[in-house]
Design goal:
This protein is mainly α. It has 16 helices and 4 strands. Helices cover 68% and strands 2% of the residues. A two-stranded antiparallel sheet has the order 1-2. A hairpin with an 8-residue loop joins strand 3 (373-375) and strand 4 (384-386).
Length: 487
């Protein structure tokens, strides 16, 4: 394909043009890809690690609670449903990395680029709004989750010291501020690609805490000598009829949030080397990673529910109360914090990239905004590149997420809203629309009808989950004081 293009160009242009177009065939340019960017090096395994990091986030921790609302039949069924929808839509999405031809089409570097080049302007704007809101919400959610885990460590130690006499009430604010400061430092590391090791560390951490949660669940079940829980979930009586309905809906939002990662899929695909075609590698990677995460989720959620029954806590690891071995819970909570520190960056980098790109396009001549400064750091070979706007903007972003977290620290309902908000448009609607456009699926053909049915079904789930979560927030607001200690 590249060679024919080069040959055709030869007739119309001068020599240098051929040279430009046939870059992929030039042995001298082994270090560049067909779009002139540095050679991508990602494989199925790095892509899977990235996906697992993006999926197994703090979502794991609320799964026992979600299954407790739904019961032993609906809980696992809903989970499988979400995993299939996510797998299917990821497959559709991986075909949208290149517009047109799967091997030599124009690359889309982000989810947004794909929507713009395939669906056009208006949908692109709406998609952008939803995506960046969603990523922003995730950043806030992670700040809260991390501070809760830091507090859990502090409280379990304080509990242990006082032998359970001191209730150890404390404010989550200092911990959110500590988290924020860490993120400000880390957010100055440029580029998604260059933080491959964060992904690996985060993947290890998420396995650590999920495994500890799982192990504690199993131990608890063994100690109880019986699987708690019922086929239909939490019984009316423990909660009222209406509460049962709201909570069932909110559980859907929580499970949807646990699977919401299609937003960063194309960014991850952009780190993969070719040949083979990126979409092939990516499909393998999604299969591997979704299989791993679903098995994992099933185990964690089911064991948590079996251990606690109707009393399953909103956050699995803070719910084990202060049993011994308390140091094991501390390790798990520390692992959550480390993981969330990395995941926060993974989800906020796209926002940084977007804002910085639009600013430099809007004001190309402003030194303040676009001039790269090079700072020599002793001990590093290459100088550290930065500019004033990047530093200021990233700091402000992190400060904003931290302040919002401090204002509303009961975030698992808000996370339910985010899961609902992001699930249908980003995981289902846009991938389906892009696929239909990309593959030229005919209107009213069987395939078209099935895709639309899938889309409508997911819309209903999203709306229902959103309503349930908003009801949860309303209940929280009744007993709420800003910036007060919450535990």
């Amino acid at each position: 394909m590249g060679e024919t293009a080069a040959a055709n160009n030869h007739h119309h242009h001068h020599g240098h043009q051929v040279f430009d177009v046939s870059v992929p065939q030039q042995p001298a340019f082994k270090c560049f890809d067909d779009d002139g960017r540095l050679k991508r090096t990602g494989t199925v395994w790095t892509a899977s690690a990235h996906i697992i990091t993006a999926v197994i986030g703090s979502g794991v921790l609320s799964l026992a609670w979600a299954i407790a609302q739904l019961g032993w039949i609906a809980g696992p069924a809903v989970m499988l449903l979400f995993s299939f929808v996510t797998l299917y839509s990821s497959t559709l999405l991986s075909d949208c990395y290149r517009t047109g031809d799967a091997v030599s089409g124009k690359r889309n570097y982000t989810y947004m680029d794909a929507v713009r080049s395939i669906l056009g302007g208006f949908k692109f704007k709406i998609c952008g709004l939803i995506q960046y809101l969603n990523l922003f919400g995730i950043a806030v959610g992670y700040t809260i989750a991390a501070s809760i885990s830091m507090m859990a460590i502090k409280r379990s130690n304080c509990f242990h010291k006082s032998g359970g006499k001191d209730p150890c009430h404390m404010s989550s604010n200092p911990y959110m501020i500590i988290f924020g400061v860490t993120e400000i430092l880390l957010s100055q590391v440029p580029d998604f690609d260059q933080i491959w090791w964060i992904s690996i560390v985060a993947a290890v951490m998420s396995f650590t805490y999920s495994a500890i949660g799982l192990a504690l669940g199993i131990v608890q079940v063994a100690a109880n000598g019986v699987f708690k829980g019922s086929l239909t979930g939490i019984s009316i009586g423990t909660v009222t009829q209406t509460q049962k309905i709201w909570r069932t809906f909110q559980a859907l939002g929580d499970i949807a949030f646990a699977y919401s990662y299609s937003v960063v899929l194309i960014e991850i695909q952009d780190t993969v080397r070719s040949p083979p075609a990126e979409s092939t590698t990516m499909k393998k990677a999604t299969k591997i990673s979704i299989a791993v995460t679903t098995i994992f989720y099933m185990l964690c959620g089911s064991m948590g529910y079996a251990a606690f029954g109707d009393a399953a806590p909103g956050n699995l690891l803070t719910g084990f109360g202060f049993y011994n071995p308390f140091w094991l819970l501390d390790i798990a909570n520390a692992a959550i914090v480390v993981h969330l520190i990395g995941a926060y960056q993974v989800f906020s980098q796209p926002i940084f990239a977007f804002v910085e790109k639009s600013v430099s396009e809007r004001f190309p001549d402003s030194d303040l905004l676009t001039k790269e400064l090079q700072i020599k750091i002793p001990g590093f070979r290459s100088p550290y590149k930065t500019n004033v706007f990047r530093v200021v903007f990233r700091c402000c972003f992190v400060v904003l997420t931290t302040v919002i977290s401090m204002l509303m620290p009961f975030f698992n309902d808000v996370v339910g809203i985010l899961g609902a908000l992001g699930f249908w448009p980003l995981t289902v609607y846009f991938p389906v629309e892009m696929y239909i456009k990309q593959r030229k699926v005919e209107k009213w053909s069987t395939r078209w009808v099935c895709l639309q049915m899938l889309s409508v079904a997911c819309l209903v789930i999203s709306v229902v989950a959103g309503v349930g979560s908003i009801a949860g927030v309303m209940l929280d607001l009744k007993v709420y004081k800003p910036f007060q200690s919450t535990y």
